[in-house]
Give the backbone structure.
Amino acid sequence: VRDAEGRVLRTFVLSPEVREIALSADGSRIAIFDGDHVITNAAGDRQFPESDDVKTPMVPAATGRWSGVDLIVLTPRGLDVLGPNGLKRTAAIQPDPRIGPFGQLDITPDGSRLAVTGARGVWVTDRNSAMSAVAVLPSVAQVMLTEDGKHVYVIRKQSGAVEVLDVRVDGELRETGQAP
């Protein structure tokens, strides 16, 4: 991990089991998905001291994104929200099963909306309300929410090409055309 001037703040020894690294938007928190654990710097110290590390047991297929001090983790079982000390803040949130096995996760900067891809579609939910929506789309590869969470861009592979669709989020998901 380097600072803005390129100085090394901390070196992490990555094992072959490391699947993903997630850095918070402000650069103060890091999560390393290493085999059966997620390792986070609980204090959110920009210097990343090793003494701050918290190791939380996690399934190997987990992936995650930061939302403030919380780490939103997607596992084959659903979504977990881990607090600064690796403690689970909420019970697992279960994405709609119509999208199939979970693949990728995105979250708005304020953490209010989550989007999850599956083999057969996209699921979006608002953590502050009961709003939840599903779009059944073939071959979804990636999902990206806009900052305000009002749109989700879906990348899907069709006939070897990648197509980007704008899907409006307002209680239902619907294709509104190709994104610019």
